[in-house]
Amino acid sequence: MSVSRCGWVKLSDPVYVAYHDEEWGKPLHDDRALFELFSLETQSAGLSWLTILKKREGYREAFEGFDLNKVAHYGEADIDRILNSGLVVKSRPKIEAIITNARGFLEIQKEFGSLDAYFWGKVGGRAIINDVSDYKEAACTSDISDTITKELKKRGFKFIGTTTVYAFMQACGMVNDHENSCMCKQIRK
Fold first, then answer.
1. Position 117 in a domain
2. Would you say residue 41 lies in a domain?
3. pTM to 2 decimal places
4. Residue 83 within any structural domain of the chain
């Protein structure tokens, strides 16, 4: 029996298929997991998502499981350790962005109680389900991603833009942009 997936899925790559089927668009509410996903989305700027996805375990190791409190307190020695680890994309500005953003997320946790409350509050606690007949015609930004981007930039966040934030919103399930014919569309409503 044939399974219908979104057209962007590279069926020849089991990592991509598993990511689509098991993670992308599934509502995520754990602060550690949200921090990890947000961080990884910032790393994909200028690269394919698959490149970052295949290095995810390396990022987890280099950033100590994306423990927000630990990462927020990283210094120059940690940056050098990560850059020399061979586990991540070797880009000092991108590594520094994860650390800077971690510090910003600690402030958001203090103000909103959790990253979950901050992000999901932007969509009223419920996923926005879009009518997507073909992923090539789907939105890559929204008014909400614009707003979040402006707010985070005011807080000093780095390596973000409205497209990156929208990709994060799709990935963590705030927005359900699975194609209408995709097997995951109904599951994730």
1. yes
2. yes
3. 0.95
4. yes
Catalytic pick from 16, 24, 36, 41? 41
Tokens of 113: 């109680």
Let me know if 146 is exposed, middle or buried by CB neighbors in 10 A (0-12, 13-18, 19+): middle
Told to judge if 24 belongs to the known catalytic residues of this protein, a careful annotator would answer: no
Can you tell me the distance from the alpha carbon of 5 to that of 49, in angstroms, rounded to the nearest whole number?
Answer: 17
Query: 108 lies in which domain range?
Result: 24-187
> Is 118 a known active-site residue?
no
Based on the structure, what is the number of domains in the chain? 1
Which of the residues 19, 23, 96, 135 is marked catalytic?
19
pLDDT digits (tens, 9 = 90+) for 144-189: 999 999 999 999 999 999 999 999 999 999 999 999 999 998 655 4
Q: Which of 8, 49, 96, 135 is catalytic?
A: 49
Active site residue 49: yes
Q: Is residue 8 part of a domain?
A: no
CATH number of the domain where residue 83 is located: 1.10.340.30
Q: Which are the contacts of 135, defined by CB distance < 8 A and separation ≥ 6? A: 6, 7, 8, 177, 179
What is d(CA 97, CA 89) in angstroms, rounded to the nearest whole number? Answer: 13
